[in-house]
Structure formats: structure tokens, C-alpha cells
Design goal:
Protein name: 4Fe-4S ferredoxin-type domain-containing protein
CATH class of the largest domain: Alpha Beta
Shape: globular
Organism: Desulfonatronum thiosulfatophilum
Strand content: 15-25%
GO molecular function: 4 iron, 4 sulfur cluster binding; metal ion binding
Number of strands: 16
Radius of gyration: 21 Å
CATH topology of the largest domain: Rossmann fold
Keywords: 4Fe-4S, Iron, Iron-sulfur, Metal-binding
Order of helices and strands: EHHEHEHHEEEHEEEHHEHEEHEHEEHHHE
Oligomer: single chain
Number of helices: 14
InterPro entries: 4Fe4S_Fe-S-bd, DUF362, Fe-S_Ferredoxin
Length: about 375
Amino acid sequence: MTSEVVFWDLRTTRKATYEVKLRRLLKAAGVSDAVRSGDLTAVKLHFGESGTTGFVSPLWLRPIIAFLRKLGSKPFLTDTNTLYVGNRGEAVSHCLQAAMHGFDPLLLGAPVIIADGLNSRNQVTVPFLGRQIREAHLAGDILAADSLLTISHFKGHELAGIGGSLKNMAMGCATRQGKMHQHGCLAPMVHAQECRGCASCVGVCAAGALQLDEDNKIHLSPELCVGCGACLHTCRKNCFAIDWKTDITAFMERMMEYAAAVVRSMTKSRACAHISFVTQVTPQCDCAGYSDKPICPDIGILASRDPVALDQACLDMVNKAEALHPSHLPPGLAAGEDKFRAMHPHVPADYGLDYAQDLGLGSRKYHIREI
């Protein structure tokens, strides 16, 4: 099966402005078929960690929100709290970070709602029988929405190789526990020597996996830990850390299974659509805290109902594009070579897309429809 991916190369004219061309893209991609009048539509995006500049700008986002509202939808901008401790680790700081980057509900016409709640406890656990997981821990307000539109900044990623629509769904729609689950590190690492015996982590550990020992130092019982990550965000002495080391193939499979769990858990089978901005294609994720020089020129905006085809098309276009030097790319890398594996050689050549296809998320075969 071949899927359609709609592409706009960002060219405009006096009559065919950005807003006009973007509306054409959204109509051609079938967004109006995925979103119905009266829908509470989750617009899943990344608000950008402090210090980054490559995230999708609110200025570029505003016509998309206007399009959804004209359909009769009630869109809300959403993301989930991060696993790591930072400016998006709980909903208060997360909303403030979104505001700092210009995501103003009064200007955009859509409120900011952190989908997994104040401390990532708004969670729905759904069954999923895959190669790696038997259940997925997802954000409650993503699953409560009537439709889902992912808006992704296509870029590199230190662990997954690329960050596109599939990763946006998989990691971005998971709670802290779901993120820990995908990384394969159920229990955090413990640095007991840093503990001051305040027991604040013991109070937030619903599983009862934490207790103070006879030396008034924290002790973790791994067999009881459920990987919720609450201790990471409670401790002020950095006693807990994430073990980022993981089997890459297993990690990629867990990530694709989580993306499939999101799609299968939506209330309507036709309720998802996806947009990717292939602009400022940076080597790292927008979580990195900085945005390095892009690795290729801006390419355009792509959209599809098929997230696998969309990620594949974005990947192909970036790899075909001119390589920008100097940048994070190895010197001498030419157009047509795989830019992301040149930076992240540990990643499998298919970026997990074959397994995503096997899971029924979409097709790697696509054709481009230009507008």
C-alpha cells in the first residue's frame, strides 16, 4: 500500500501567502476528515526547552489553529511532562516555559493543557501486546480528546536518530512512567551518598519502593519500583538519576509500540493527522537546551494521515538535500548520504520504521503530492 504525503516547499506569493498555502496543505492532507465539529482536538507539539530556538514557532502555528476552529473543533495545545528534571518537568513550569516561547492562548485561540497533569499522574494504562511491552502508560488528556493532530519539528535525536511524528506520539503522549518504560530503565539509579535523609522521596513513592536505611540514607527496592519517576522530581540533592543506557533495537521497538498504542486508543479510528515542519533541521532534539546549526537548508512542511510515510518522506528529503558545512555533520558528507546515521551511527538503518509498518501504523511506501 502506498500512502500520500502532501508537501509544500514554503514558496509564497502576494496572493498565495503563508496562511493560504497552509490551508491548502491541511485540506489536501485530509485534516478536515480527521477533525470534526465539536471535537476536543489535542494539538500535540513540543514547546521547546529553555535555550532552544528550533521548535515550531507560534507564528507558524496560528493558521493551523484557525483552520481547526473553522471546522468547529475546540483545539488545545498539549505536551507531557519530561522524565528529566528541567523547565518542563511538571505542569506549572511547563506552562510557564510555553508562555516564555510565545504560546499565548489569547493570541493563538487555543489553551495550553499539559496532558498528563500537574505531576504526571493523569495516566491511563492500556493493554498492548507487542514484542517488548504488554501495556502502555499514556497521558489521560490525550486519550480523552476526540481527535489528535501532531505537529512535529523534524530533526535529529541522540538516541532515536530522528525525531518526527512517531516519536512525537510515542514519547510525547506518554507519562513519566511510560517514558521510563520505553527507555527500558524501570528503576532509577540511586546515589545514596548524596542523601540527606529528608524522606521527601519516600512520601511520593506510591509503590513503597523507597525507604531510609539505618544510616538515614535512601534505599531502593527495585522489585517494587514501577518506574513512575516521581522521586526524580522530588529530590533536591540529585540522589536519583536516569540510566540512559539501553539496547537500541529494543528501545526503538518499544517506542513504535507506544505510538501504536496511542493510535489504537483514540476514540475514533479516523481521529489522527500529522504535520511535520522540516525547517531548522538540528542535530539534536528540542529538549537539548540549545539549537545547533541546521544540517541542511529548510525544506518545507509535509502532512499526512500516515505517520510512517510522513517520517519516511521527511527522512528522504533531508538526506537528499545539500549538507551544510561546517555543522555537526562529518566533513565531506554529500547530498544523498544518510545525515542522521552519520551523526548517530548506533541507530538501525530503518530507524524502526519497518516495525512501525508491521504494527499497522502506516506504510514506508509513499507518493508526494505537491501544492
